[in-house]
Amino acid sequence: MSLVSNVMAVDCDVDASNLYLLFHPFHDKELVFVSGKHAKVDNEVCIGCGRCEELCRFDAIEMTQGKAVIDEISCDGCALCYRICPVDAITMIPVDKSRMYIGTFRHGNMVYGRLAPGEENSGKMVNQIREISKNIAKEKLCPVTILDGPPGIGCPVLSTITGVDKVVIVTEPTLSGFSDLKRAVELVRQYSLPTYVIINKCTLNQTVARQVEDWCAEKNVPVVALLPFSPEMVEALVEGKTIVEYRPQSDMTNLLKKALSEILF
After folding, report:
1. Are residues 136 and 189 in the same domain?
2. Which domain holds residue 114?
C-alpha cells in the first residue's frame, strides 16, 4: 500500500517541466500565462530609420529590406524601441504562448506550467501554479502537496520553497553536484526549513558520495537515502512508470519508501 494517496503534485520546474511525461495526467483545464510583452513592428508604418536597431541592447532588432524585424526570442520586452520610434510603428503586445495545466493523474491531482522558450517571469508562473494547487488541494482534501522544484538557487527556486514545510534536495556524487548542494542548503537555511538530502546514483563515485555524507553530517542535514545507480530506473521510465510501480518489491523501492516515511513522519 502507498504511504500517501490522493496527493497534490505540482511541477514547479516551469522552464523544463517533465512530470507530465511520466504521469500522463488528464487535463481538466488549460490556462494562458502572460509572461510579459514583446515588441511588434507595423511594416506599413515603419520608415526604416534604424534607430530601434541602433539602440536595442539585446540585439533583437535587425533591418531587413528597409524594415525593422524583431526576434521574439531575443526581445526582452523593455519597450525602449516602442518609446523612441519616431512614427509609432512599434507596439508592445502580450506574450501569451506559455500555458498552465490543471488535471488529475493516477495518484491524485496535478498542476504544472510550461514556460515557452525565451519567455520570462518563471518565478511569477511558479507563484500562480502554487496558488492554483493550494486551492485544489483544499477542495479535494489532499493530505500532502509535493512540489517538484527546479535546480539552482534562482527566482523559481525561491518561489517554490517559500512557505513550504520541508525541503528535500536531490544530489549526485559529482564535484559540481556537491557544490550545488552546498549552495542549495545555504539558501534553504535562510528560510529555517527542515532539510533532507537524497544522494542519487551514489555508486558512480563512492568517494564523493562519502564526502557528501560527511559534509551533511557536519551540517546536521539528514541523508535519508543513498540510491545506487540502477538500470531498473531507466527501464521504469521507458515504461512510463515510477520505480515503485515498476518494481514494487525492489531494493530501490524499499529505499525510497523508507526515505518518504522518514521525511513525512
Report:
1. yes
2. 7-34+107-264
Contact (CB, 8 A) for 150 and 14: yes
The residue written with cell numbers 549552495 in the block is 183
> What amino acid occupies position 158?
L
Residues 6+ apart with CB under 8 A from 234: none
99-147 pLDDT, tens digit each: 999 999 999 999 999 998 877 788 999 999 999 999 999 999 999 999 9
Place of cell 523559481: 156
Rounded Cα distance, 213 and 229, in Å = 17
Under a CB-based contact definition with an 8 Å cutoff, are residues 6 and 140 in contact?
Answer: yes
- Residue 165's identity, in one-letter code, is D
The pTM (predicted TM-score) of the whole model is 0.83
Total domains, the chain: 2
Residue 100, beta-bridge partner list? 31, 113
